[in-house]
């Protein structure tokens, strides 16, 4: 299509703007959407995209405006609302902070050192009871002691670990006290 034909379409759009706007508004359900689509139609005609032969220029303009309105509607649907954006901004980040990662590694090292400091039998009972989930009756038989002695050894190992962690990290001592009062 030549520049003259393009200018003719633009002039036709301007001359029939009100009737096209009313027709589009009825179809779209909104005068504002109709006006936006017609303005973008005018801009599209200015861009110089290739246009083939046109049988009915008014229908052609109307169809362009309808397509533009559909594109605008799809674009609006893809955008998040303000409430959706606010909700996303307030999602808590569950990932530990770098400081917490360093702290946790330090606490783990202290706990491993504390385990090494335990007498061998206590360390074996502790590992079997808490890490391997061996029933305490089975441990009592294995070590030739009472279930009460197994409970005592596990309790002493836990207390030693807590003491070592508290010495390494004063914040751990505070967290331990807070969780024990829950």
Features:
single chain, mainly alpha, 2 domains, 80% helix, Arc Repressor Mutant, subunit A, 182 residues, 10 helices, Rna Polymerase Sigma Factor, Chain: A
Number of helices: 10
- Unreliable segments of 5+ consecutive residues: none
Number of strands: 0
Largest sheet: none
Instruction: Using the coordinates above, name the CATH class of the largest domain.
Output: Mainly Alpha
What does this structure look like?
The protein has 182 residues and is mainly alpha-helical. It folds into 2 domains: 3-83, Rna Polymerase Sigma Factor, Chain: A, CATH 1.10.1740; 98-180, Winged helix-like DNA-binding domain superfamily/Winged helix DNA-binding domain (Arc Repressor Mutant, subunit A, Orthogonal Bundle), CATH 1.10.10. Helix content is 80%, strand content 0%. It has 10 helices and no strands. The protein has helices at residues 3-15, 17-28, 31-47, 57-78, 82-89, 98-117, 120-131, 136-143, 147-168, 170-180.
